[in-house]
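pls ignore typos typing on phone
magnesium ion + seq
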Amino acid sequence: MIRNIIKSSVFFLLVVLAGCKSNSDSDAGKNNNKPKNIILFIGDGMGVSHLYAGMTKSGQPFNLEKFPYSGLSKTYSADNYITDSAAGGTAIATGEKTNNGMIGVKLDSTPVSSITEIAHNKGLGAGVVSTSAITHATPASFVAHNAGRGNYEEIAEDFLKGTIDVFIGGGEDHFRNRKDGTDLTLKLIEQGFDVVFNIEDLKKSQSSKLAGLLAKEHMPKASEGRQGMLSSMTRKAIETLSKNKNGFVLMVEGSMIDWGGHENNLDYITDEMIDLDQAIGVALEFALLDKNTLIVVTADHETGGLVLSGGDIPTRSVEAKFAGKDHSAVMVPIFSFGPGAEKFSGIHENTFFFNEFVQLLGLARK
Ligand code: MG
Ligand code: ZN
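k done
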């Protein structure tokens, strides 16, 4: 009895102390909470309409609806009001606005370090996950440095430079069906990577360095056999990277929301949107237990100029109109959860993500 009273008193005291701490923090208008881990999701081409169409078709609340903070990102590149995924990814990854078509380089083509590279240099784990080829513009922006986004075989070589611990996506051909005849996966194995070529082997891997090349080029659409795989890839990446006691930075891309936008295909968009939200749910589950993980979700740009011109929630129907078949200039949404999440509300340049991540992790640009 007395023991129980003491126990509950101690618990109460802890609750109160925790309450005081957070009160004084918010009174001071700043949050001293800093994350140990950052998981960044990029929905390529994901505008607010793409998201809401996915939510409407899903019929279930989205995991994203649990995120307490939201904002907007200005996506223009150095040379164009409308960015491509190379300049968009580079801005988010490196804090540097560059020209369309350029990966991880400044306007003069000199390399600029990404948040994953800087984190890795400081002893944190670093990973990228994508449903497209891992050498494609968005994931490449975090790992590679190349003035031409289409130089996939050169970009693949940058994955051997010791700056990334986990990469999972498509792109096998860029590593081992190359013009120069070399098999880069043999070199990865020499470096201690477990290299796997299918989702079953990926799930079984126990290695702390993991390369998953799950398709010759891009993975299939969610509706054509990939449904749920991004969640498994995200779970494996988190499981692998969280072995690092210093923390980790992970980027996860839902690549094909953009491709549905280019095709003006609403079902393609909503299938990919729902699949991405499920992967976000995996990260959220981890962050809720871990309590030291910041999750940020955003897009590199909007694709298709999508307008929801009609619909019905009970029957989960949406009618769409597209302004075009390419990217548009509109601002894209930001959602954040976890320590430091409040920093991401408001309107920001797309370069702001990098700067904020560096601050929050206490890293300095090298
Ligand atoms: Mg992409
Ligand atoms: Zn695109």
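Residues 10 and 274 are 43 Å apart (CA to CA). The first helix runs from residue 2 to 27. more later
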